[in-house]
Structures are given as C-alpha cells and as structure tokens.
Amino acid sequence: MLTDAELAQAREAVADSYTAAITAHSTTDDTGGGWDPIDGPTDPGDPGTPLYDGPARVEAIRNMAQPRDAAGQSVTVRPYKVSLPFDAPELPTGTRVTVDAHTTDPHIAGKVLTVTGGVYAGLGIERVFYADLDLSNQPEGGA
Fold first, then answer.
1. What is the chain's Cα-based Rg?
2. Diameter over CA atoms, the chain
C-alpha cells in the first residue's frame, strides 16, 4: 500500500508521460454527438459537453489489429490503451475520444477512438481505458 505522499509523487511522475491531448464525448446524452457506423458523427457541429478534455497517453496495442465484418464491409479495428490522470472522470463504453494532438505519433491526431472498457484494478495512479480505432468510420472520411 502506498502512502498519500507516495501516491501524489507517482501521479506527478506519470503525468509527465502524457503525450496526447484528447476530448471525450458521450454518445448517450441528449446534446448531440451521436455516431452512425456508416456516416460517422451524427451532429459534428454540436457534440455536447465533453466528459473529459485534457492530457492523456494514447498507445497502440501492438499486434492486435483484427479485421471484422461491419455492416457487410470488412474493416480493420486497431485497439488502443488510453491513460488519463486519476482524477479524470469515468469514460463509459461507447464514449468517443478525439485525439486532438499527439507529440510522438502525429498521425493519430484528429482520429476518433471508441471506448470499449476500463480497467478497475491498480494502485490508483492513473485511469486506464481501452478503445478501438476504426479507420473506415472517421469524421470527414479520414483514414
């Protein structure tokens, strides 16, 4: 068990590893920001109030990309691990995470990930979520 001082020190140290800025929006509220698997964002002009807007670590999970059938088309979904500060809010399954900027992987900037689940074990240093990147269904058709 870590002391409060050790937890604070660990949280500060891990914050230095955040190389991305993200914005996370719920797809279940009534303020817009829904998602259609064919057309992408249903209301990109008004995505609603963000659940989270701030620093993160967004990492590809290597060797895990899988082709899937989605509405009769073959798509390759790439899994990602998204880490946030410990005091960040819960990101429910289905939340859309836009990678606003990324210092070590600029190609992912502007892409939208879909949260698939969270990890609830650990020392309480940071919050960890898993998300999928589907390049076939990106805003503006960007692949």
1. 16
2. 53
Token pair recorded at residue 58 = 């967004």
Q: Could you list the residue range(s) of the whole structural domain that residue 130 is in? A: 4-141
CA distance 125 to 114: 23
Q: How far is CA 64 from CA 24, 32, 44, in A?
A: 23, 32, 29
What pTM value is reported for the model? 0.78
Question: CATH number, domain at 74?
Answer: 2.40.10.270
What DSSP string runs through 13-60?
A: HHHTT--EEEEEE-SSSSSS--EETTTEES-TT---S-SEEEEEEEEE
Residue 129: strand, helix, or coil: strand
pLDDT, the chain, mean: 82
How many domains are contained in the chain? 1
70 Ramachandran zone, left/alpha/beta (phi>0; psi -120 to 50): beta
User: pLDDT tens digits for 79-124?
Assistant: 999 999 999 999 999 899 999 999 999 999 999 999 999 887 677 8
* Per-residue CA distances from 74 to 25, 47, 69 (Å): 26, 28, 5
